[in-house]
Write a structure and sequence with these properties.
This protein is of the alpha+beta class and about 190 residues long. The protein folds into 2 domains: about 90 residues; about 70 residues, 2-Layer Sandwich (Alpha-Beta Plaits). It has 6 helices and 4 strands, in the order H-H-H-E-H-E-E-H-E-H. Helix 1 packs parallel to helix 3. The longest helix has 29 residues. The termini are far apart.
Length: about 190
């Protein structure tokens, strides 16, 4: 039924898994390309296309006789898109510009973020309900959750928006405290 014997099933599962890997790499490669990470994009593209070619060479001669391989291919592609997005969100490449607009405790939020080592610029504005302050900063995407948790802790109704930060002239990085754990051991050597 559907041309599904053990060999076809094993090949289908292999095609599915390899497509997940190659499409996930393609997603991360695309984001790396947009962010100008040339060497990363080059390496990912090389691996991605090599995997794609191996899958195509394996199924093209067989797909007419065993159309179920096309289903495995399509499922691997779709699953690879979702997996690539999840991986990219996890590694969170790049920087973002963060704007926090609030009426409640803007000074406390700014002070705590500055204590983390981030420069924060404050702007005074007027919103629908009266005076507000906008806090503006640039941070790595992977640090965003930690910063937003501070804003929400001091001002639960704070409005915030992020946008990708393109070229950054002199990104300031948070100052590191004394190393702990394995970093302290390596530092001593």
């Amino acid at each position: 039924m559907f041309g599904l014997d053990t060999d076809t099933l094993l090949l289908g599962v292999a095609v599915f898994l390899v497509r997940i890997v190659d499409v996930s790499l393609g997603t991360i490669r695309t984001i790396s390309t947009v962010q100008g990470r040339r060497m990363v994009a080059f390496a990912l593209g090389l691996v991605e296309v090599s995997l794609w070619l191996s899958v195509m060479a394996a199924i093209v001669p067989r797909v007419a006789a065993q159309p179920v391989l096309g289903v495995f291919y399509a499922l691997g592609f779709s699953t690879g898109n979702v997996t690539g997005i999840l991986i990219e969100q996890r590694i969170a490449l790049g920087h973002v510009t963060l704007r926090i607009v609030t009426r409640v405790n803007p000074e406390k939020i700014a002070k705590e973020i500055r204590n983390m080592g981030f420069p924060v610029t404050e702007f005074v504005g007027h919103g629908r309900s009266g005076p507000v302050k906008e806090l503006l900063l640039v941070c790595k995407r992977r640090e965003l959750r930690r910063i937003l948790s501070i804003a929400r802790a001091h001002s639960p109704e704070a409005f915030y928006v992020t946008e990708p930060a393109g070229v950054i002239r002199t990104p300031r990085r948070p100052t590191m405290q004394s190393p702990t754990g394995w970093r302290a051991i390596i530092k001593k050597k």
